[in-house]
Amino acid sequence: MPRKGFFNIDARKVAELSSLGLVLPSSIAIGLFMGYFLDKLFGTHPWLLIILLLFGVVSGFYSLLRGLNKYLDKNKDI
């Protein structure tokens, strides 16, 4: 019977939590790069960059909260 304690870490839980840590920065980076390239393409500097960066931030927080709620619902014994 496995012991429960600090050193008994489930690798699946660690992987889920570490992937949640990458959701916010990746969403922001995607919005930033898309805004930059669309501004270059259409000559609308800096408006599309600002708009898509804000969409990236909002999308990142939304995805982070949704993933965290899903993780907490699945692991209610924590």
Describe this structure in words.
It is a single chain. This protein is mainly alpha-helical and 78 residues long. It has a domain at 23-74. The chain has two helices and no strands. It starts with 10 loop residues before the first helix and ends with a helix.
* Mean of pLDDT: 88
* Secondary-structure content class: mainly alpha
Q: Specify the biggest β-sheet.
A: none
pLDDT below 50 for ≥5 consecutive residues: which ranges? none
Question: What gyration radius follows from the Cα positions, in whole Å?
Answer: 18 Å
- What global shape is seen? elongated
Termini separation: 19 Å
Strand content: under 5%
Q: Helix count?
A: 2
Q: What sequence of helices (H) and strands (E) makes up the elements?
A: HH
Q: How much helical structure, as a percent, in the residues?
A: over 70%
How many E strands?
Answer: 0
